[in-house]
Amino acid sequence: VAARTATASPASSSRAVVMTSYQVGPAASNRASCKGCKAKIDKGALRVGTVTPGPGDYDVTSWRHLECQKHPKNLTSLDELAGFSGLDAVDKAKVEAWFNNSGVGAKKRSADEVESVAQLNPKKMKAAEMKKTLKANGIDATGSKDELQGKVQETVKRAAAEAHYMKMTVPQLKAVLEANTQLKGGAKQELLDRCVDGKVYGALPRCPQCGGGVLRVVYPSQTGHGGQGKFSCPGYYDDDHFVRCNFKAEHVERLPWVEP
Ligand SMILES: [Zn+2]
Ligand SMILES: [Zn+2]
């Protein structure tokens, strides 16, 4: 036992200093969903993977659309971005623009940007302005004027929620999630995304089948889903015993979101 402890402790302390790493590339399939907007990532779409050490010996990669991923502060060079050198010229240019526009010192600007989107009134905007806004927010900018207006309205609502939660600290975000019985794990960006999603579409309910898991959702599109999509139950831990659950649904009632 002593020998095991002796070998285990340097391994776990070296694990603690392992930095998160990032990778980029076109999605190989349309099976993964974006941790940011929770929509499916279409096959071929540029996505960024955040690689963190998992609970065992393996790493966990969470994916986001390029547009849904803020440039991480600890990514200081594109040489550190796995997969970048293998991209084609068009994708390289997109990733370079992403890297340069949301790089060091962008935190303040992006808060201002979010705030300015939150102030927009789509009813007073021309189609061209609405398209520009949607593109800048990484949302498909096609459709009739009514459709564009609906998309901008939703973008404004999301930006207002984001502006609200961006000012909060991690413990404050966790308190909001706690008050709504939502999952509290993850990095700050994930907590923020979860709060924005809940404020705009309502809280995710507990599983009606097992009563223990909080449902997760994958949206069929970035906008216009109204908080509905493919729901499933991740199961839950009952003390130290994991309870599996196979609950799936296409429609569940989202619960009123509360501010503690
Ligand atoms: Zn996304
Ligand atoms: Zn369940």
Automatic annotation (TrEMBL):
Pfam families: SAP, zf-PARP. InterPro entries: SAP_dom (IPR003034), SAP_dom_sf (IPR036361), Znf_PARP (IPR001510), Znf_PARP_sf (IPR036957). GO terms for cellular component: nucleus. GO terms for molecular function: DNA binding; zinc ion binding. SUPFAM superfamilies: Glucocorticoid receptor-like (DNA-binding domain), SAP domain. Residues 22-96 form the PARP-type domain. Coiled coil: none annotated. It is found in: Nucleus. Keywords: Metal-binding, Nucleus, Zinc, Zinc-finger. The keyword Cell inner membrane does not apply. This is PARP-type domain-containing protein.
